[in-house]
Write a structure and sequence with these properties.
With 418 residues, this protein is of the alpha/beta class. It is 47% helix and 15% strand. The protein folds into two domains: 2-206 and 397-417, Glycogen Phosphorylase B (Rossmann fold, 3-Layer(aba) Sandwich); 209-392, Glycogen Phosphorylase B (Rossmann fold, 3-Layer(aba) Sandwich), CATH 3.40.50. It contains 17 helices and 13 strands. It is globular.
């Protein structure tokens, strides 16, 4: 099948490091491996990782003031003259959205690419995907990874909230089917778009099972590079260092644990706004010599770094609506590593307490410490849980995600033709 993959979120560069970028590339790579032809239409190509086996058509957002002012006038919004950076950003997105469908259609014509279906990653202020599906008369599967309007309002600011929510509901409601990465996200979609939303499928993040299974051979090489011998018990965090990921809590736990377990080490892999503070803290701490915060690494190298870890910790802070489907957790399990995480949202589904990892009370550092100490003290239990963790990811490959999506698109095509 020919798949048109739409990624119109400027915050998700196709070749970037964040989990969302990995999700885009892994889905496309799995689709290509299954024999599908994919064209990615995006607003930001990015850099830092190898491109997936697909053509990439980039349509950058134009932030030119005349375009923004024209969009402001068309919406009848008064210019308050205070700069309004959030509003201007949203107006630029809206202006871009109006031109996207024509730009993509021209690109498809130039490439003689007629998609069998559209697979779109949900983005705020985006209606182009629905317009393209109508023009091309093909199914449109919409992937929703988060309650974006809520998230934007809470963390980055949302000036045109009413419009954002109307456009979000319209996008959900016009989709042939919606793929939600968690039950919490699925509930959000149903609440926003019901009763007009089509079928909603819950498909958690996938994982490249073969790549993580083969990485064990890299374990000693990575640990030797860090100067850590076989006697070290390595706690690890892999992901973006953002405030809600709780890495400062993990450091608290590590500092307490190392006083009674001197062989414990702490490895942090990834980048983000909280990394600099954590590095400064490690430099001041008596426990600092046992800490390695290596920063950004290409995703292709993540399996090797995961293999160097004995216990993966995902110390998320409590949230009233924990809607995440953490890619880092699925990858750790596929890497054969027990995972310690709070009892939040989908984490309780991904991690079987006592079998593939240990769950603790959210934001309870002492409960987290006890869970980690249990695994540090029992190497045999770590190995047993690691084997069970890897086995638990059978059937979670990206190829299975793609198969489920393409079946939905095919069913929709057959239903339309009947």
């Amino acid at each position: 099948m020919k798949i048109l993959y739409l990624n119109f979120d400027r915050g998700i560069p196709v070749l970037g490091d964040k989990g969302a970028s990995v999700h885009v590339r892994e889905f496309v790579r799995a689709a290509a491996d299954l024999g599908h032809e994919v064209l990615i239409a995006c607003t930001r190509r990015g850099e830092g990782n190898a491109p997936p086996p697909a053509a990439i058509a980039e349509f950058p957002i134009d932030d030119a003031p005349p375009l923004i002012e024209a969009e402001r006038r068309s919406l009848g919004i008064e210019d308050r003259g205070d700069g309004e950076p959030i509003l201007r950003r949203e107006l630029a997105r809206l202006a871009h959205d109006q031109s996207l469908a024509a730009l993509v259609l021209a690109s498809l014509a130039a490439r003689d690419f007629r998609p069998d279906f559209i697979y779109e990653r949900h983005a705020l202020f985006s209606s182009a995907g629905a317009g393209l599906a109508a023009r091309l008369e093909c199914p449109r599967i919409l992937e929703v990874n988060a309650p974006l309007a809520d998230e934007q309002k809470a963390y980055r600011g949302l000036a045109l909230e009413a419009l954002a929510r109307r456009m979000e509901a319209a996008s959900f409601g016009s989709a042939t089917a919606v793929v939600a990465v968690s039950e919490r996200v699925a509930a959000y979609v149903r609440a926003v778009a019901a009763p007009s939303a089509g079928s909603v499928l819950v498909i958690p993040n996938g994982v490249d099972l073969g790549r993580f299974a083969a990485a064990d051979a890299s374990r000693e090489r990575v640990r030797s590079h860090l100067g850590w011998g076989p006697e070290a018990c390595v706690l690890g965090f892999v992901g973006s260092f953002k405030p809600w990921h709780g890495t400062e809590t993990l450091f608290d736990v590590y500092e307490r644990l190392v006083t009674t377990h001197p062989a414990v080490r702490l490895l942090g892999v990834g980048d983000g706004p909280a990394l600099a503070d954590l590095r400064a803290r490690a430099a001041r701490s008596p426990a600092g010599p046992g800490v390695a915060l290596v920063g950004r690494v290409p995703h292709v190298d993540i399996p090797a770094w995961t293999a160097a870890i004995d216990v993966v910790v995902a110390p998320y802070h409590a949230a009233g609506n924990f809607y995440f489907s953490p890619l880092k957790v699925v990858e750790a399990l596929a890497g054969g590593r027990p995972v310690v995480a709070p009892r939040l949202g989908q984490l309780g589904d991904l991690i079987e307490h006592g079998r593939t990892g240990l769950l603790y009370s959210p934001d309870d550092a002492e409960d987290c410490r006890r869970a980690i100490a249990r695994l540090v003290d029992d190497p045999a239990l770590r190995l047993e849980m690691g084997r069970a963790a890897r086995a638990s990811t059978a059937g979670r490959g990206w190829d299975e995600v793609v198969r489920t999506v393409t079946r939905s698109a095919l069913d929709a095509t057959i239903g339309a033709a009947a």
